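User: What would this chain look like folded?
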Amino acid sequence: MNTHEPRPEQRRAAMAPPEPEVAPDAPAQGADDNATPLLSSRLVFTGILAAGLALMTVVLALTAVDYWSARQSMLQDSRVEAAIVADNISAAVMFRDADTANEILGALRASPMVQAAAVYDTGGALLAQYRQDFAQPLAATLADTSMGGLPERHGLTVLELARTVMVAGNASGTLYVRKSMQAVYTRLAVRFATALLIAIGVMGLATAMVLRSRAAVRDAERRLHALAHTDAVTGLGNRHAFNERLSGEVQRARTLSTRLALVYIDLDNFKTLNDTFGHAAGDGLLRQVARRLQSVVRSTDAIARLGGDEFAVILRTELDDAALQSYGQRIVGVFRASFTEVGHQITVTCSAGIATYPGDAQDMDGLISHADTAMYRAKEMGKNRCVRFDASMNQAMVRRQTIEHALRAALQTGEGLALHYQPLYAARDTSLVGAEALLRWTHAELGAVSPLEAVIVAEDCGLITGLGYWVMRTACTDAARWQAMGAPMRVSVNVSARQLADPLFLERVMDTLRAAGLPAHLLEIELTETVLMDNMEAGAQTLHRLSQLGIHLAIDDFGTGYSSLAYLRQLPMRRLKIDRSFIRDLPGQEHSRTIVTAIVALAHGLGLQITAEGVETPEQAEYLVRQGCDMLQGYHFARPMPVQQLHTLLLQDPAPGPA
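Assistant: Here's the prediction, encoded as structure tokens.
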């Protein structure tokens, strides 16, 4: 059974692009992309600022502790210093020796922090003093000499303290000392400046490291973004970029009330070329296709490779339908010239579909779906063309989906499924020798669904294997019933390519025969030339095993495919069925007569029997008998009939046995 191109909904399941540059007025998505680095930069700045403030707080806290420690140390040292001076000056005070007292106080000039010092006698009169030039004058008398005369005063700029001068255990006077706090502040300023410079240096180094790391992260993010949005083979945008761009363009078109078009492109028969010349050549061909597409689209249009051999073009357009169709044909036209790859001239065509927003679809998903549907329609019409989406295409798609769902349900329950049988007659005496099983399906809502339509849908959605086994089970059960009636007759069943490729195919056929109680020689499996050629290597062993079991094998529709005679000689086939297209013009057309004569001679030369199907007139039957056909099948003898009608026919004319 021929394979088919993937259906639109199969493509859509994974829908999703150069990373095309988003124009300045493109909405939402571009704004989000620009906002992300800005937000990240603000976070980095905030983090650095917070770290700086924390470091500054630590520096200030350490400075405050240092200030308190230095002040306490200075106070303690000053008390000790005052006590020493008081002891040394006690004798001078006792004898009221002002010169000696002045000399002793003058020694305090060695301490730059001392602004002034004085000694007062017990009566509070000034006995001696030392004062720097800039210092304030000292009091000439002390009003109160009790408890040392003056209390300690710890100001912000000046430290004042008094010490009683003791002589032989008696108070002889009072020592007064005034010190400046400038040295403490100078030391604190140096320490603060040093700590601040260190903090600034650390912050600068940390900031440089953070900014460098951030730059590396941004570069990595840009590379990852490019990898995530760029197709590795062609350099165009990939499916992810396509989705983002299309979403933004749809939003823009909705906001500005403009028109947007999507061109969906699929290369024709690319898989065959890829398999023939290799994947490296296939990638090279895809790159050439990308360059050609870029050469015909406008700078404002975005091209994307969606995967495999699928491409898409997003275009903002005010083109009318005729101009849009011409645009699509221009895209198809770039494939007219052959491609050169790996030293070969390769001819590739494409099928394209066009859908517009908001004319054909109201959202992004609908636009993709309709463009894909139009592209698939182009393939159905013979490929190498561009088709504009039409609403009627959706009706066919809806019907196909309805058939798929109904067929799935029918395979579960068997409801509506039936087999009709078309009898096969021996050419020598027109006796009934077999019957071909033909699928019929009647649905409650869809009515009678044509077998061809049902099979195509089943192949596309993967139900053909299950459907094929249902046909085989039912046909074998009916054939076993005919044998029980005393009319053993061979039943012919068609097998699809997927069914033959099933690893369990042989086992399931044997299980079916055992379950039905049907001898193997009463089952004939028909395969088309295409199925045989597509599964030659994998299916040859299975076919030989089937033949060894006694099952008959036949080639259906012979003459319409491209089978190799060398391969046919290696396969255990029993019968060839001449396609009805060669029977239709018999016996009048010479061309058909020549082909039929050649096929009959070929088959008999290979030891094969010949069945002619599609026999509709007595003249055709007579000619085929004269040419040596072994069996005949067609409306001239009997139309396909339900199994009950065939039972009646068997009772009237029992089959003599399989040929």
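The longest strand covers residues 432-443. If you want, I can go into more detail on any region.
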